[in-house]
Every structure is written in structure tokens, then in C-alpha cells.
Specification:
The chain has 10 helices and 9 strands. The protein is of the alpha+beta class.
Amino acid sequence: MEKIIALPEEAEEARTRLPIVPIAFGSGSKCPSADEAHLLLSVRAGSLSYTDLSGEETADEGQLLFVRRGHALPDLAPSADFDCEFVLFDAAEDFLAHLDLDDISAGEVGEGCGLSAVAKMSVYALEYYHDCLKICAAVYAALAKIARDRMIAKLERFDTLSERLSPAILQIEQRYGEALTVPMLAHACSMGESHFSRAFKQVYGTSPIRYLIRVRIEAAKTLLADTDLPFEEIARRCGFGTTKYFGDMLKRHEHVSPRELRAMYRSMTQVSFF
């Protein structure tokens, strides 16, 4: 049986002064639309399968689901015993922005979310519908819980990806003077090239080749500072191949030529203090 409780119009003045504007609460076996308001949903029983940008996902009993206004949940498939409680609300964009939520974000109901709580949302609506501040605090606490869960999941995913990419980092740091390629680095991680490149960019913020070039440049800078090796030899040892390519890369990243950088290092070592 569906039940939707709209907040009374006399609460409108109070609501306009708050960052979260509750519109309606509800419960039942159907997932409401988020066409015209943000949706916060708590799964009381069963599960709800849906599709987002990362693929097919499932919200199970005890989970929270946030859906940003205007973002539908495609391919909805509630289980036969699905039951939920939800709140439809409006909110200032800058208020939601600092939570860094995806358009569709999931989290776990917990004691720290203030509603223990979201499962009691309809009770709050019935008893405190006139007190928007209590409702806003409950909604915000649930959104913050989702944001925390999302951040923890992201950090865990980064740790996993970093571990998987460690063979490539080791190859780059130990063999930067060789003709390393993306296929070689991906193979070292037992990953496909596309997946490897996406994962590398996600963890390190740059492409594998740009990372390799940066390691080569740092190695070349050390040789320029600490040795009298010819530029041709430094280019060869650091994997640049030719002196021209070495010079081009150094100019692009450090804005100086090999000769200018070596001269700078020499002048620094000749400075004496009295």
C-alpha cells in the first residue's frame, strides 16, 4: 500500500529559510520518481536493482539511495518483497556540492546517520511535519552518511587499483631508460590496455606515458647536476633516444634547455658563503 505525506503549506515560510526544503514523505513497494525533486530512499525490505553509469547496481535492505533531481533510475527492478520509505526534497546546489555526491549515490543506514534512522522517516513526518528543522537535520545526516560511505569506497578502490598498478610503477622506476610502452606496462599488471590506462589516470592523475616522461626528466636532471656526461649519453640513459627529443621534453616541462639547466646547477654549486 502506497502512502505519501505532503508537508502543509503553512510550513512554506520556514522551509524557505533552510538549505534543505522537504516536499513530501512516502512509503510502499514502488520507487518514486526524482523528476522534479531530489530523492532520498531507505530500503526497508527486499532489494532494488537499477542501472547507473558504472553498470547494474543493487540497493539492498538497510541501504540508502540518493537520486539527484532530474536523474531517473533506468531499468528499475524491485524484488517481490521490496518495501521502502523515502523523502522528496529540494536543496541549494552549493549545499549539496560540498557533499560531493554522484547523481546516483548509495550508502548504508547506520547509527551515525541521525535517523537510525532513515527507516523511521515516516514517523518523523507524522510527528514533526510542522518542524522542518528536525526533518532537514535528518535528511542532511543521511546524505552525509552516504557521502562518507562513498568516500570510503573510493579510497578502498584506489588502494586496490594502486596495488594492481604497482608492477607498472616498478617497471617505470627501474627501466625508464628502456623503450617502455603502454602494452608492456599493461601486461605487467595483467590488465587490458584500455582498462590499464583508465585506472592509471584515475589513481595518478596522468597517463602512463606522461608519468614515464616525468620520471625520465627527473633522472636526467640528476645526471645534469651530478655528472659531466654528454647530453647525448644522458638522453640515451634516460630513455629519450635522441638529444633533440631530450631537449624538446626538457624545454616543454622545465622551460630550459639541457645546457641552461646544467649551467644553473654549476652556478649554484659555485656560490660561497662568508
